[in-house]
């Protein structure tokens, strides 16, 4: 049984060999090697680019974190300044009611957008 399977397999493979020319197979093999070389070159370029991008990201992320901390600190300082300004304005309004005749003591004084609210 096993011998008949081998013989049938050999016969089928011989028939396939006659269907395809050796030149065509060599041409396909050559094209596959060319494509393989190009893909390996592309892979090397992408690997180098990934390394470069990783290094750049590491540098930029440190700066970004530092600038984020700075902006948060500036926001806290500005919030404190505006709080003090509102307090001073309310004291002035209480002492001198005519100091702000256009009724600007309302919430319209602080017209800054709230950046923490989603838009």
Structure description:
- This protein has 119 residues and is mainly α.
- 77% of the residues lie in helices and 0% in strands.
- The chain has two helices and no strands.
- The chain has helices spanning 2-19, 22-95.
- The longest helix has 74 residues, at 22-95.
- The radius of gyration is 39 Å and the shape is rod-shaped.
- The chain starts with a helix and ends in a 24-residue tail after the last helix.
- The mean pLDDT is 87.
Computed Rg: 39 Å
**Spatial separation of the terminal alpha carbons:** 77 Å
Total helical segments: 2
Poorly predicted parts: none
What overall form do the CA principal axes indicate?
A: rod-shaped
Strand content: under 5%
Percent in helix: over 70%
Mean pLDDT over all positions: 87
Give the biggest beta sheet.
none
Total beta-strand segments: 0
Query: Which class best fits the helix and strand makeup?
Result: mainly alpha
Give the SSE string: HH
Topology:
Elements: H1 2-19, H2 22-95
Describe the structure concisely.
The chain is mostly helical. It is built from two helices and no strands.
Index terms:
77% helix, 2 helices, 119 residues, mainly alpha
